[in-house]
Amino acid sequence: MADDLNTADSGASKDRPAQATTVKKNGYIIIKSRPCKVINISTAKPGKHGSCKCSFTAVDLFTGKKMEEVCPGHATVRVPEVSRKEYGLTYIEDDGFMNLMDGDTNETRADLKLPDNELGEKIKGEYEEGKMLIVTVLSAMGEEAVIDCKEDNSTY
User: Fold this and answer.
1) pLDDT digits over 71-121, tens only?
2) Which of 53, 54, 84, 91 fits a 20 to 30 Å CA distance from 125?
3) Confidence (pTM)
4) Which helix (H) or strand (E) holds 10?
5) Can you tell me the distance from the alpha carbon of 2 to that of 15, in angstroms, rounded to the nearest whole number?
6) Strand 108-113 relative to strand 133-140, pairing
7) Which residues contact 128 (CB under 8 A, 6 or more apart)?
8) What 3-state DSSP class applies to 142?
9) 61 SS3 class
10) Which residues contact 41 (CB under 8 A, 6 or more apart)?
């Protein structure tokens, strides 16, 4: 069974199986090969010829697109492994790539671009004001995106 799981470069699983009835609101599910956050679940009672049906309404974690899925309650669905990590913003390149530092390991990375939305404008504006920022990066199924930023009020 472990052989059929999709794996990331580190050997960690990108997703795991779960019974449809165990997925909860604000949880995660994979719909049409995309990691999504569940915003609504409705279940229909079992009928004369089968089990209950679960109807999921979810939003793609990276595109914001609304998606829907209907499946039997006993069916196995895929649930993505989602992680969040905070990085200190050290510099923004002219091409929009951010230099980020992991506060735990002091390793740097420069492979994430500023988001093309209000959050990206907020990060750039506050950085140009000289504020020390911490950005939150969401990772799932080999994709990463900056989803939040806050001012670093810690003293060193």
Assistant:
1) 998 899 999 999 999 999 999 999 999 999 998 899 999 999 999 999 999
2) 84
3) 0.80
4) none
5) 11
6) unpaired
7) none
8) coil
9) coil
10) 23, 24, 25, 54, 55, 56, 57
